[in-house]
TrEMBL record:
<dbReference type="GO" id="GO:0005764">
    <property type="term" value="C:lysosome"/>
</dbReference>
<dbReference type="Pfam" id="PF01120">
    <property type="entry name" value="Alpha_L_fucos"/>
</dbReference>
<dbReference type="InterPro" id="IPR031919">
    <property type="entry name" value="Fucosidase_C"/>
</dbReference>
<comment type="similarity">
    <text>Belongs to the glycosyl hydrolase 29 family.</text>
</comment>
<dbReference type="InterPro" id="IPR016286">
    <property type="entry name" value="FUC_metazoa-typ"/>
</dbReference>
<dbReference type="InterPro" id="IPR017853">
    <property type="entry name" value="GH"/>
</dbReference>
<dbReference type="Pfam" id="PF16757">
    <property type="entry name" value="Fucosidase_C"/>
</dbReference>
<dbReference type="GO" id="GO:0004560">
    <property type="term" value="F:alpha-L-fucosidase activity"/>
</dbReference>
<dbReference type="GO" id="GO:0006004">
    <property type="term" value="P:fucose metabolic process"/>
</dbReference>
<dbReference type="InterPro" id="IPR057739">
    <property type="entry name" value="Glyco_hydro_29_N"/>
</dbReference>
<feature type="domain" description="Glycoside hydrolase family 29 N-terminal">
    <location>
        <begin position="32"/>
        <end position="187"/>
    </location>
</feature>
<dbReference type="InterPro" id="IPR013780">
    <property type="entry name" value="Glyco_hydro_b"/>
</dbReference>
<keyword id="KW-0378">Hydrolase</keyword>
<feature type="domain" description="Alpha-L-fucosidase C-terminal">
    <location>
        <begin position="243"/>
        <end position="322"/>
    </location>
</feature>
<comment type="function">
    <text>Alpha-L-fucosidase is responsible for hydrolyzing the alpha-1,6-linked fucose joined to the reducing-end N-acetylglucosamine of the carbohydrate moieties of glycoproteins.</text>
</comment>
<protein>
    <recommendedName>
        <fullName>alpha-L-fucosidase</fullName>
        <ecNumber>3.2.1.51</ecNumber>
    </recommendedName>
</protein>
<dbReference type="InterPro" id="IPR000933">
    <property type="entry name" value="Glyco_hydro_29"/>
</dbReference>
Amino acid sequence: EDGKGKWWEGLNPADLYGLPPGQRTPEYIESVKQNWVLRHTELVTKYDVDMLWFDGYGFPYKEYGKQVCQNFFNHKLQQNGTIDAVIAGKFSNEPSTVKDIERGGASEVLPYPWQGITTLRTWFYKEDTDRMEYKQNARTIIELLADYMSKNGNLLLNVELLADGTIPAEQKVMLDDIGAWVNLNSEAIYASKPWLIYGDNLNSYLKLADDGTDETDLAALQEQKKSAHFNERTAASPAYGHDEVRYVTNNKALYVIVLNPAKGDIVLPSLGLNSTQKPGKITSIKMIGGKDSIKFRQGQEQLILSVPGKRPNKYATVFKLEGVL
């Protein structure tokens, strides 16, 4: 009768935590691994998930984890005729997996797809969470997404949930802003690919001195380049310069994402006709969400693009360039 009518009816609550370490015999450990395989196989077959995400640097329980992933792929193949599924984790070099970077991103365009993972504040809601400051907001998440896309990456965003399953009100406002930006600029996001380089006027936030001189913090720059996990920019980071951009491509168009736009001309050296990227002659530039064509001058050494004062929103602005590719 113990547990009748409870959520754990028919189960053993002791299985939630297992035996004390001193009582874990080889036979017991083997049973835990087998149980893990059964539960996760049920997860991927019964609930038709699209992605498995492992918070670790390898497959859980090594070969047992690989067995679950094999079951996952086989189920998708049998169900859909294709393996439309993703296995992600902090893997270093595992075939058929997506490399995760926790609260950070790549410093260059990577030849393989990868994923940056972050959260707005903390990984889960708890009693004292309301006293914590937000590490991210709508602006910085949009900037991270643009940066990661330009380097062949994806962004996985964690959201805290209250006990009743609802999203905290202030986080819902952020998500609504992010969603509106993504919907507006969807043609530059979904199925987009990186260009030959990821951006122009790089590391502008390390160069902003009041007198206009170059004040680049070389030590900070080198640390950012060599690190991956936990190198992300946050709401406390210095703002990007008004001319720093990220590049992505889609459907034979090049998209220029101005991270911190302001009215005025910006100079993009990589889009000059003589640049090493060998861009084509631009035929038109349009601002996503705007109606009018954008003024520009493409010369041998640079592209001068005129950013209008009136833009669709207060976040990063996206321009569609025809003729470059």
